[in-house]
Amino acid sequence: MSEKPKSDPQNDEISRRNFVKVGGAVLAGGAALGGGAIPAAAGTTPSLFPTLPGQDARIQSYRTLGRTGWRVSDVGMGSVPLRESNVVRYAYDKGVNYFDTAEGYGRGAAERAIGEAMQHMDRDKIFIASKCRVRDDDTAEQIIERVRGSLERLRTDYVDAYGIHLASSVEVLSHPGYHAAMDKLKAEGRVRFTSVSYHGPGRPEQASMADVLVAAAEDGRFDLMLLVYNFLNHEDGDRIIAACKANNVGTTAMKTAPGVLRWEPVDPDNLTEQQQQYVERMTGRGQSREAAIERLEARAQRQKDLYDRTRPFVEQYGLLTEEQLRLGSIHWVLQNPDMHTACVAFTDFDLIDKVVPLSGTQLGAAEARMLEECRLALNDQYCRHGCAACGGSCPHDVPVSTVMRYAYYYEGQGNEKYAMTLYAGLEGKNASACADCAGDCAGACPFGIDIQPNMLQVHDLLTLA
Fold this sequence. Notes:
The protein is of the alpha/beta class. It has a domain at about 50-260 and about 325-360: NADP-dependent oxidoreductase domain (TIM Barrel, Alpha-Beta Barrel). It has 15 helices and 10 strands. The protein has helices spanning about 10, 85-95, 110-120, 140-155, 175-190, 210-220, 235-245, 275-285, 290-315, 320-335, 350-355, 365-380, 400-410, 415-425, 450-460; strands at about 60-65, 70-75, 75-80, 100, 125-130, 160-165, 190-200, 225-230, 250-255, 340-345. β5 (about 125-130), α4 (about 140-155) and β6 form a beta-alpha-beta unit. The longest helix is centred in the middle third of the chain and has 29 residues, at about 290-315. It is globular and about 65 Å long. About 50% of the residues are buried.
């Protein structure tokens, strides 16, 4: 492994002045809102956040990551869409010291970005957790080689934790190849702790997130875990956190924000670029322009219906944007002291500057009311990650929860190419089957989501290219 070069911390510190920012439907499982939002009158908008976003803010709270003993920043960094190393350095300069990654994120691109940034960071002061998916027939030697690949991309001699990624059954927790590999790598000093991640089933026959991760917490061989946790989807997470606390296992959160709020009106004479792409795609399939526009307008009307339901608190709290919802959602996660770090998919300096000031602060009354009213309005619009309750009702075996998770990657994380690639991999099991379906899924969602229209909308979103 390459050694970290000597460097001057003063010269290594990165700022917005010497960094060129990377450019980077449904409520990523629900609804969308935004275009028609009404700002409150000047000077009347309640303050939603405890501090204003600022470049001088730093992490204020560090929590002990279970039995690892590590004091990690309450705001951590996720890396699914990460490609730019300067974003990692900027988060580090703000006090973020927990970085979650995986070999599969961008086919190693996320690990490489962290590795490049690490040459300007104090390795002893950061915690890096990586992971891989293990197949039933993987041997210890194969897993060891994959870990070594991660180490090479990360440009480090060791990772603080290496885990089973997307452990979809209790049985995989006892994978002999994984545990033999970890024993050897720990003895060599290449891995310090073991971990597991799971965001829930894509199909009804798979185990729930709670069943798998509670079993992992009680297993005794896993030191930390990554789970879905947000204000609209926390019941399973609360059960897992309690098991982790009882067994001194570290907890880290993913998908901390349930999605984005956006409403996009349709003007047939002045279509947006995305709307025009959709119309061109549909006319290319033989549909008339008028029919394509009608479908766009129907989708916009569903979004407008949600907007009308949320109008009271839009007017009360000012311009409710997807950004405010995301920040409020992350802030809600930070209120639980037993959730040790919330992994946020930072993609640019701006988001870091907006999230870091939330560290160590309390949820204000106005913000709490906003989230509660959002919860009531969006309850039957948000497809919960890892809920497969409707799966058995689909005659085409479409993995609804998986499809909606891909929409989250697209809308909630801005990782369009990754989401569309994953969706294309579903091939015959995607939501195109919903177009001519009788809608047997109607009423199958325990939260009241109208599944078929949402699936058609997501199919449009993920197949525009």
